[in-house]
Amino acid sequence: MKTMTCKQLYGPCEALIHGETAEEMMENSKKHGMEMAAIGDEAHIKVVEAMRQYMDDPEAVKRFMEKFQNDFAAMPEDQ
User: Fold this and answer.
1) For the chain: N or C, fewer Cβ within 10 A?
2) Structural domain boundaries in the chain
3) pLDDT tens digits for 34-75?
4) Using alpha carbons only, how large is the chain's radius of gyration in Å?
């Protein structure tokens, strides 16, 4: 299990996000962002909207995922 903050995952806060794999971490980050946006958190709403626009560019998504997977791999396992 690894832990990253929302901010390390390109979000606006210091909430802790956990995941066994890069894919699980990304899914948990997305869930956190959507939950915060649903309760009206403006900072998270802005990030969610920006990510939606970003997803329209397949090359940008590919670069983002490669960077994120490398960042995740470099993170230490939780103690």
Assistant:
1) C
2) 2-74
3) 999 999 999 999 998 988 888 888 998 899 889 999 999 999
4) 12
